[in-house]
Amino acid sequence: GIAGLALNPGRSGSWIYDNPGEVGYHTMAFSNNYLTVSALIGMAQTNEECMTVGTLRVPFESSVMYSLVINQKSTLDGYCGVGVANYSENLQQYLGYSTYSIGYYDDGGVYINGSRLTTLAPFVAGNVVDVVVNSYLKVVWFRADGGFWNNNDVADPTANVGGYDISSLFAGNAAVSVGAAPWYNSGDNTYDQIFIAPTSFYTVPTGYTFVPGVPNAGGQGGDGASFWDADNFAGIGGAGGGGGGRFKDSGTGGGG
Fold first, then answer.
1. Residue 189 to residue 198: CA distance in whole angstroms
2. Closest by alpha carbon to 90, among 41, 18, 24?
3. CB 254 within 8 A of CB 7
């Protein structure tokens, strides 16, 4: 499952991930002290979904912003995604696969519950994608390279205008965090690389708090399943702080 962590709403985050270890899904590599995630070649079929989530839970009744830099992108359009997910999402799938996540992809597509919700501005390698979450109201906004929020000149997180409903992600007080879905293209060996930024590049909306990436705040998980469930017992601790056991809101991580 997802690497077990002691999640502190006051702590900044990086990435966590549990290698599914199953044929048919590519793996991921972490670098830059767990601030950067890259899609790598898979064990059999390589053009398959995978995703990772941040270590920092979006605090209840809060307003936060993350900045994600698209360091590089596969030549396949529409497969590089960023967004928000809760810790019950299946990491062998894509952001927006179920009601547990929402994903914004490089072709502009926004997905939730397996369906395309809308189309926003596309983004390319070198762009910065800002993700704003209001957990009071359970809504989200996306912004590509400092453009309009949700590609709409009227949308405004501060005024709570034009956000997308993500109440399903918070059902049952689920833990929610930023997410990334990098892709590996076996056709020409190109892949996505996504960086969770330690500083904001564009203006943070009034009333919102920027959540920076922090080196070594994440880790790779252990031997659990590909997604959290009640029977996902603690795995072997991975490299980096917070590797290892199953995810629980107040649980502890394995390795280090």
1. 29
2. 18
3. no
pLDDT in tens, 67-113: 999 999 999 999 999 999 998 888 778 899 999 999 999 999 999 99
Find where tokens 């601030």 sit. Answer: 35
**Distance from C-alpha of 154 to C-alpha of 215, rounded to nearest angstrom:** 36
| Rg for the chain, CA atoms, rounded | 16
131: part of which helix (H) or strand (E)? strand 128-134
CA distance 60 to 42: 36
**In the beta sheet, which residues pair with residue 66?**
131
CA angle 87, 53, 123 (to 5 degrees): 130
How many CB atoms lie under 10 A from the CB of residue 10?
Answer: 6
Mapped onto helix, strand or coil, the DSSP state of residue 173 is helix
Question: What residues contact 147, with CB distance under 8 A and at least 6 apart?
Answer: 121
Q: Which amino acid is at 41?
A: I
pLDDT in tens, 110-158: 999 999 999 999 999 999 999 999 999 999 999 999 999 999 999 999 9
